[in-house]
Design a protein that fits this description.
The chain is about 35% helix and about 25% strand. It has a single domain, classed as Rossmann fold, CATH 3.40.50. It has a nine-stranded mixed beta sheet with strand order 1-2-3-5-4-6-7-8-9, sandwiched between helices. By secondary structure, it is α/β, with parallel strands linked by helices. The protein is built from seven helices and nine strands. The radius of gyration is 17 Å and the shape is globular.
Length: about 250
């Protein structure tokens, strides 16, 4: 159990709609992150943990969905996952044949994401009763796994996410520790939004459809005419959807 979280704020500056803090948080290893806090922050704001995709970084989430959430009065914490962003150009190490390292990095990412959620919850500007997770691509798998085990997450947004691809040589091995279909069934009663591209060749439409079919209500899937990258209007919709679900302090999800 984590009893204390340490932070190191490197920079704090005003941005449109609030404040932007570049920091690290840790209990053991330092995790680089960007915290966006709306102003005014009284009463405390709802907040979302932002998890980026493969080969991406925290800035890609903070400067898109994080910045848009800020205009809706929602705080966010975008983190650099292991081997990404400030933590080195090591994402190529996470290959399926290297199963031991893949599992180690996955577990580390889950632990750090859990710690990030705890860090958000204890910030005085954040209402710990109104927390959410937004994951893009790889981050959607991670965010779903986190939500499946953490009841503090009251709403989930999966962008360009879905079930694992079928028929690959490594599917059975990977599904032993990453199973989106099993995970999504554990978020019953909490609002779920999926946004997916009809022409996505990375997480294909059939993968999204399988995950959505397995998800319990309340749920929504929104398709856009494009590939793996979300158009600005879809990012805006995700922010509006989440802001509405987080609602007022102590609101029921």
């Amino acid at each position: 159990m984590v009893t204390q979280i340490f932070q190191n704020v490197r920079e704090e500056r005003s941005v449109r709609g609030g404040r932007r803090l570049t920091l690290t948080y840790r209990d053991t290893d330092e995790v680089p992150a960007i915290l966006l806090i709306p102003t005014p922050s009284v009463p405390p704001a709802g907040a979302a943990l932002l998890l980026h995709g493969y080969t991406s970084r925290k800035e890609d989430m903070a400067d898109t969905i994080g910045r848009t959430l800020l205009t809706h009065g929602v705080a966010s914490l975008a983190v650099d996952l292991p081997l990404h962003g400030e933590r080195g150009d090591g994402a190529d190490e996470m290959t399926l044949p290297n199963a031991v390292d893949l599992l180690r990095h996955w577990r580390a990412a889950l632990e750090e994401a859990t710690l990030g959620l705890r860090y958000l919850a204890v910030r005085p500007e954040v209402d710990h009763g109104r927390l959410a997770v937004i994951g893009y691509s790889l981050g959607s798998y991670l965010g779903l796994a986190l939500a499946a085990t953490d009841p503090a997450i009251g709403a989930v947004v999966l962008a360009a996410g879905g079930d694992l691809p079928r028929g690959t040589p490594f599917e059975a091995m990977v599904r032993r520790f990453v199973d989106p279909v099993a995970a999504v069934r554990q978020v019953a009663g909490r609002p779920l939004l999926m946004v997916n591209g009809r022409r996505d060749t990375t997480v294909r439409p059939d993968q999204a459809e399988r995950l959505y079919a397995a998800a319990p209500d309340p749920k929504e899937i929104r398709w856009y005419d494009g590939g793996h990258w979300l158009p600005p209007q879809v990012v805006q919709y995700c922010a509006e959807w989440l802001a509405a679900r987080l609602g007022e302090r102590n609101a029921s999800f």
